[in-house]
Design brief:
The complex is a heterodimer. By secondary structure, chain A is of the alpha+beta class. Chain A has 2 domains: 74 residues, Ubiquitin-like (UB roll); 63 residues, [2Fe-2S]-binding domain (DNA polymerase, domain 1). Chain A is built from 6 helices and 5 strands. A 5-stranded mixed β-sheet of chain A has the order 2-1-5-3-4, sandwiched between helices. In chain A, helix 3 packs across helix 6. The termini of chain A are far apart. By secondary structure, chain B is α+β, with helices and mostly antiparallel strands. Chain B is 30% helix and 23% strand. Chain B has a 7-stranded mixed β-sheet, with helices on both faces. In chain B, strand 4 and strand 5 form a beta hairpin. In chain B, helix 3 packs parallel to helix 4, helix 14 runs parallel beside helix 18 and helix 17 crosses helix 18. Chain B is globular. The two termini of chain B are 48 Å apart. In chain B, 53% of the residues are buried. The chains are: A alpha+beta, B alpha+beta. At the A-B interface, helix 1, helix 3, helix 4, helix 5 and helix 6 of A face helix 6 and helix 17 of B.
């Protein structure tokens, strides 16, 4: 089946079975490997992308469901060679260790701040709760999100 | 399979050649080479800072090359919080020697004695204003020679500056970082292997035809007990592997012999215990837990008749190189290991089964192959942390001093092939931190190591975290029994000034017992000396009426010698504390009939954002002593500090992990 997807502002085509996940299309067909396959059940947050500005697990969304939606991956947040303010905040606060979970967290942070530029700590924890970090950088991530509060996105 | 042959125990340390460590490039970049690998601990930045300091360069001028087996010196593996302490020291010596060689060349060039030369920002200057940059000094030939021992070298003194940075950070946040999962090689297929559910099972039968009916399937690979598939896409390979529908025959009994190791053996310990004014005996249990890396294992192998390239995430590039070479019949130097960015493995990255899957499939299919394990396979087939069952007893004198100590534990190996592991290696793994850092008068410390019911392996801090949970919980029991303050009780049992310093520092930082106790709130302390790093931690918890423990705050005081990368070190301690808090409060691998049944994030929950403590306060002791490790120590005292805080908060002494509400309620009822 042929599918046309709006990814990072570009219309792209994939010829895959209907059951193929959005994540597999992004990684295998479009070469966008910044979204990671951590569990395949939407339980860890490593594969999060923006779907119509909402954070969503791309590993449980089929390519069929993704058609006609506006998809943004971590690669599409800022032009090549520059960093989105949220990405910059994660770098400045060294809010990461191995980085396997980081791109998904960046996606959820961008969505949170677009909707709510001044989130309280509880709202940050709620928004980030789908994301697992095994290295234990939670405290630094919360501080990074707080540091970018109120910045125009 | 023997791990020992690849583990490097007893390999003699040969004198190092500067050209294997430090290369001055034509553009002025200084290349520093190490066999260690990066998996989140920011060792790349640490090494860059060490070399930049010795060679008087901006940190950005130093490029660090890690784990590329063709280009870096042989290394046993990235374990044991040793990178900064050992390879950092080697790089520091090599950089200091490189600097000495450069000064000698400048001295000849300017006809000026070495002591009259000044060095700044990559240039060596004579007092008359003539100066030369490093790259000009290697136009006549690269720096070469045997690095002299430390005493013959002149080291730069003072703090290491160069700001705080993680070399890979911009790539990580933009998704450019390449994990093995992201490697794409021309002509590459996707492979997936069906492993037996229990190690050692034999393949009785499988369906070799049905997979071929599935879209994208290229080849079914069958060699003895090994079966797998090659397909065009990842999801096709996973699906086709399921269609193999293998049947396995029962595993043979594990032939590995148990091993008993005596770490300390004072005579007549039973009499000493019986003669003490007060004594106490307790039993403790620590379950299997999973490394639970965020990304399941993956690897790319490209095996050709005359050589092989492996794009992998491994903690032991040279061990994997040798093992892969043996499998496909190549010489080790024909196998080129290229470490990619690694999803944190915390000690589990030395097993390399996905890499060996890829090697076998690539060899059979004569094409590059990417293997990605599924989440369920990662939980079910990986090796887990050994179980620890301990019986511990001590006797106190009338004034509350320990006069006798007995520690007997049963655990599983941290390395495969226990029978071949020398007892001193067991002492370093299962016995790690089993000897308390205290004056004990008389002690008996015995280990019994036997194969586990599932595969067990190295895990962050090896047995230190489990042993310290038992020992430091028991120290708390002894302090409570004799009516002593837990920190004062520890201080009276050590003369080590560095241990005393971290205990006193954490007492001050945490406001230990200074604030009035609120109902349900409590503080607990624990400490350890881990591979030369001194650490004391205080946990503050709230225990709800239903027994649910909430970790509110952790304070850590650390003496790791000279800090090479202070914010990186802080991040490592914070992460160690957070990860160990998760082990302590939530984690247990459940096993039924030899099979891991906790194979997803629902049945194996780890700490999430809402579980994180409000703060992790890390204080370092300023020191010019040799640098020691930082990757594991933060995790080591956490379980005991939290368990001791639960006791202070609720009166519940819980002697098994994780600290489940049900265990706390039961212990509370018994209190």
């Amino acid at each position: 089946m042929r599918y046309r997807l709006d990814v990072n502002g570009e219309m792209r085509e994939a010829d895959v079975p209907a059951s193929t996940t959005l994540l597999d299309v992004l990684r295998e067909d479009f070469g966008l490997t910044g979204s990671h396959l951590g569990c395949g059940h939407g339980a860890c947050g490593a594969c999060y992308v923006l779907v119509d500005s909402e954070p969503a697990a791309s590993c449980t969304m089929s390519v069929e469901e993704a058609e006609g939606r506006h998809i943004v991956t971590v690669e599409g947040l800022a032009p090549a060679g520059s960093l989105h303010p949220v990405q910059q905040a994660f770098v400045d606060g060294d809010a990461m260790q191995c980085g396997a979970c980081t791109t998904g967290m960046v996606i959820s942070t961008v969505s949170l701040l677009m909707k709510n530029p001044h989130p309280a700590e509880g709202e940050i924890l709620d928004a980030m709760s789908p994301h697992l970090c095994r290295c234990g950088a939670y405290g630094r991530v919360v501080k990074a999100v707080q540091s970018v509060r109120g910045v125009a996105l | 399979m023997s791990r020992v042959a690849n583990s490097g125990w007893g390999r003699p340390k040969t004198p190092e050649q500067v050209e294997e460590r430090i290369v001055v490039g034509q553009d002025g970049t200084v290349w520093a080479r190490s066999g260690k690998v990066e998996y989140g601990q920011d060792i790349r930045a640490g090494f860059a800072r060490i070399v930049a300091r010795e060679m008087e360069l901006p940190v950005a001028r130093v490029q660090v090359e890690l784990g590329e087996t063709d280009r870096v010196p042989w290394d046993m593996g990235t374990y044991g919080s040793m990178s900064t302490a050992t390879d950092g020291a080697s790089l520091r010596a090599a950089a200091a020697y490189a600097m000495a060689l450069l000064k000698e060349r400048a001295s000849v060039r300017f006809s000026v004695p070495v002591p009259d030369l000044a060095v700044q920002d990559g240039r060596i200057a004579a007092s008359d204003g003539r100066s030369v940059c490093y790259e000009q000094l290697v136009e006549s030939g690269p720096l070469e020679g045997t690095v002299p021992s430390g005493a013959a070298l002149e080291f730069a003194s003072g703090a290491i500056d160069g700001g705080s940075f993680r070399v890979e950070a911009a790539d990580i946040v933009t998704g450019r970082t390449r994990f093995p999962h992201d490697v794409r090689v021309p002509g590459m297929l996707r492979g997936h292997v069906q492993h037996p559910p229990v190690a050692g099972m034999h393949l009785d039968s499988f369906d070799s035809q049905t997979p071929y009916a599935q879209e994208g399937v290229v080849q079914v690979v069958h060699q003895g007990d090994f079966i797998g598939v090659l397909a065009r896409r990842r999801e096709q390979a996973v699906s086709a592997a399921q269609a193999l529908d293998p049947h396995w025959s029962a595993a043979p009994s594990n032939p590995a012999e148990p091993l008993d190791v005596t770490l300390h053996d004072d005579p007549d310990i039973s009499q000493e215990l019986a003669a003490a004014a007060e004594h106490l005996t307790s039993t403790y249990h620590v379950p299997h837990i999973a490394h639970a890396s965020i990304l399941p294992s993956a690897a790319v192998a490209d095996v050709r008749p005359d050589g092989a390239d492996l794009y992998v995430a491994t903690q032991r590039p040279f061990g994997l190189r040798d093992e892969a070479a043996a499998i496909v019949g190549l010489r080790p130097e024909q196998v080129h290991v290229h470490p990619q960015h690694m999803s944190g493995m915390y000690g589990g990255g030395g097993w390399d089964q996905a890499a060996l899957d890829a090697v076998r499939l690539s060899h059979a299919g004569q094409c590059p192959v990417l293997v990605e394990w599924t989440r369920a396979e990662e939980f079910a087939l990986s090796a887990h942390r050994p179980v620890l069952d301990a019986q511990i007893a001590a006797g106190l004198s009338e004034d509350g001093q320990i006069v006798a100590w007995q520690y007997h534990c049963r655990t599983n190996p941290h390395i495969y092939g226990t029978a071949a592991v020398p007892p001193q290696a067991v002492a370093m793994t299962s016995g790690r931190n089993a000897i308390p850092p205290y004056a004990l008068a008389h002690a008996e410390i015995l280990l019994h190591v036997e194969p586990g019911d599932i595969r067990t392996s190295a895990f962050r801090s090896l047995a230190a975290a489990p042993n310290v949970f038992v020992i430091e919980s028991f120290m708390d029991e002894l302090a409570a029994m004799s009516g002593q303050d837990p920190i004062a009780f520890r201080l009276r049992h050590t003369d080590d000034p560095r241990l005393k310093t971290v205990l006193e520092l954490v007492r001050e930082r945490s406001g230990w017992n200074r604030s009035p106790r609120e109902a349900g709130h409590g503080m607990g302390v624990a400490c350890a000396v881990y591979h030369g790093t001194y650490i004391a931690e205080v946990a503050r918890v709230f225990v709800a009426a239903d027994g649910t423990p909430h970790l509110e705050q952790v304070y850590a005081a650390v003496d790791a010698g000279r800090l090479v990368h202070p914010d990186g070190a802080r991040n490592q301690i914070e992460g160690g504390v957070q990860q160990a808090a998760s082990w302590t409060l939530l984690e247990e691998t459940r096993v039924e009939a030899g099979r891991v049944v906790t194979t997803n994030w629902k049945t194996y929950p780890i700490a999430t954002f809402p579980d994180a403590p409000e703060g992790i306060d890390v204080a370092f002791v300023a020191s010019d002593k040799p640098s020691t490790g930082i990757g594991e120590p933060g995790s080591v005292p956490v379980a005991a500090a939290v368990a001791n805080a639960v006791f202070a908060a609720s009166g519940a002494r819980v002697r098994q992990l994780p600290l489940r509400p049900a265990f706390i309620q039961k212990a509370r009822a018994q209190a």
